[in-house]
Design goal:
Layout: E1 6-11, E2 14-19, H1 30-45, E3 51-56, E4 60-62, H2 91-100, E5 106-110, E6 113-115, H3 117-120, E7 127-131, E8 135-137, H4 151-159, H5 161-170, E9 173-175, H6 176-181, E10 187-189, H7 194-208, H8 211-224, H9 230-245, H10 248-258, H11 269-272
Parallel strand pairs: 2-3, 3-5, 4-6, 5-7, 6-8, 7-10
Antiparallel strand pairs: 1-2, 8-9
Helix pairs in contact: 1-2, 4-5, 8-9
Length: about 290
């Protein structure tokens, strides 16, 4: 399908997903919500996609919710997008949860302003890089609304409670240097060096790792953030390492290391994940 608010480009194992409403600073609207979910569905089903980079067109990454409706922007009684039914689920949260479930590593490349949902939807992405010209803001309290997109779960886990509280309570917009100091982003880059840096990182993953092992590792780490004891990690680690330990990819990985050559991993997430994936949907471990 063609997207109205996104550019979707796959090249050599890397999907570059570009938010593309530059005339509105890539502001988030119902169409973008639907298309982001569809794009991640498509990427998960495509074994040609090893890593996903998310960036923005023009000067902004995403300036937050489109405020074209003024004071009624967040009034669900007057919202045209009724696809969530009558329940109290917010649109940004549906996107954040879809990214959280993704089978592929996701890299955010903040080319410019990332405010409101523009930053909260990037919290479940795995690694965040920023242009030196980027700005960030969890501006919810300044708009008279609460944080959303599951950010009350993600943000304190990523940057710690004290830093999360300061950014949320003040609602101020802050620069890339503060984002780096606070642990929100991994590194800063000159504007013209941002995407090359993101692609170099994506290339390192795509060229050197097992796609299935990476899928499992991604969910092992994210799912354990809420575990109450390391035994929970031990239980699922034991299952995944037993599964991969007898797989074709581990045979190739070890053999390639011993033969001092690049590994050629053949297993694919579309068909070679273990039968117990997704294990978090089970009621209990055996």
């Amino acid at each position: 399908m063609d997207f109205e608010t996104l550019h979707y480009q796959v090249e050599d194992g890397i999907l570059t997903l570009t938010l593309s409403r530059p005339d509105r600073m890539n502001a988030f609207n119902p169409t973008m919500r639907h298309e982001l979910i569809e794009a991640f569905d498509r990427a998960d089903a495509d074994d040609a996609v090893r890593v996903i980079i998310v960036t923005g067109a023009g000067k902004a990454f995403c300036a937050g919710a489109d405020l074209a409706k003024g004071g009624d922007t967040f009034n669900r009684a007057k919202r045209e997008d009724k696809t969530l039914g009558t329940g109290l689920r917010d649109g940004g949260g549906t996107v954040a949860l879809r990214i959280f479930e993704c089978k592929k590593p996701v890299i955010a490349a903040f080319n410019g302003a990332a405010v409101g949902v523009g930053i909260t939807m990037a919290l479940p992405m795995d690694i965040r890089l920023a242009s030196t010209s980027a700005k960030f803001g969890f501006v919810f309290a300044r708009r008279g609304i609460t944080m959303e997109a599951c950010s009350s779960w993600f943000l304190p886990r990523l940057v710690g409670m004290q830093q999360a509280a300061e950014w949320i309570y003040t609602g101020r917009v802050f620069d890339a240097e503060e984002a780096l100091r606070g642990g929100l982003v991994r590194s800063l880059h000159a504007p013209d060096e941002l995407l090359p840096a993101a692609r170099a990182l994506a290339r390192e993953i795509a060229d050197n790792t097992s796609a299935v092992a990476t899928t499992l590792n991604r969910q092992l780490m994210w799912r354990m953030l809420g575990a109450d004891h390391p035994m929970e990690a031990h239980k699922i680690d034991s299952r995944t390492i037993a599964y991969m330990g007898q797989s074709a990819d581990v045979q190739e990985g070890v053999t390639a290391f011993l033969e001092k050559r690049p590994a050629r991993f053949a297993m694919a997430p579309s068909k070679d994940l273990p039968g117990f994936y997704p294990w978090w949907e089970e009621r209990q471990f055996e």
